[in-house]
Batch of 2 targets.
Target 1
Amino acid sequence: GQQLNQSPQSMFIQEGEDVSMNCTSSSIFNTWLWYKQDPGEGPVLLIALYKAGELTSNGRLTAQFGITRKDSFLNISASIPSDVGIYFCAGPNAGGTSYGKLTFGQGTILTVHP
Amino acid sequence: KAGVTQTPRYLIKTRGQQVTLSCSPISGHRSVSWYQQTPGQGLQFLFEYFSETQRNKGNFPGRFSGRQFSNSRSEMNVSTLELGDSALYLCASSPGTLGETQYFGPGTRLLVL
């Protein structure tokens, strides 16, 4: 089935450093979504991308929709302790009638040392 | 707008019992999707409901079922619980068009003993 390969699996960084993570797929996606999840809570939407090549920012976060529609990246600048959590990429695959189903990457666990 | 709400937040059951989880979507959203999240398998799609109809279903056994009411609220039921059903169950809502962004609730943590 559909798979998203997300990397890296985990990152340990110092406060103030920049972070970059990415997601790739063998299939085309029409939408790329980036979520952050805190322990025991549901994923919270950070950025949604709808067009190939689109670059979108949300505060210190920047995400891009790859031109091939098979990849996306998320950057976090000047990390702070509250950035700690698990970051997921997700998307509904193109074509078909896969209503309501998002495919998720494996997640990137981010740890920020003060 | 209020976000997606799920009840209960925590639940402990024993093997063989059944459980019903509830989800209220964002006002105006007609689609509700359910996911199971475990450390080993990540986030896996269970099913999606729109206008009281199941439109899509993941690869879970028939013990997992759901329904949606006319006010778009949804419930999922798991019968004959197994230890492996211990997980965080998440629901997400969206307006209902193909490929739309989904907004998640806080989840229900189910522990099966």
Target 2
Amino acid sequence: SAVISQKPSRDICQRGTSLTIQCQVDSQVTMMFWYRQQPGQSLTLIATANQGSEATYESGFVIDKFPISRPNLTFSTLTVSNMSPEDSSIYLCSVTTVTNEKLFFGSGTQLSVL
Amino acid sequence: QKEVEQDPGPLSVPEGAIVSLNCTYSNSAFQYFMWYRQYSRKGPELLMYTYSSGNKEDGRFTAQVDKSSKYISLFIRDSQPSDSATYLCAMSPSWGGSEKLVFGKGTKLTVNP
């Protein structure tokens, strides 16, 4: 398994500002992902974080709004830019490890935008 | 029609009851089926996974897949208050992180002591 530390755990932000969420894993992982969990909605994949290169975004998500970095095998950040109340959601980091391909999740970041 | 449909509940049962959680899906390419449990203010954790049709048992939990009906179930026997959580079904055409999972919306379960 993998221990995933995600921070902040929650934040309240003003409209128009940006928030960067950090994800740190205790072991080397094969893939890192960022998900969004909106109230009453399915977990939705935002993007795959690629080490040393641009992230791969899913339909409906763009780099300008959700820039992602992954400088090494165990760390990634997701920035939610120019926030609006519609961005209020839980954002989750997830990983698959080298030893198996199961998907593990961090505890999430509860974001509220006023 | 959404790829995965899951009744969001909420579902409330007394302690000791048998719980049945279900999902239906439309994509016949799905081969791998998973159930995640998510406690409040926590990330989802993998509870069980199955491949293709059939049953899989793990303690009080049984996962069942019926590909002909495109229907999967999770049964919880002798439910406990500690089982109170949101249960998410997820499925994928292949195994591994390279193929993204499609999740249901989750069913919120409360087991009352």
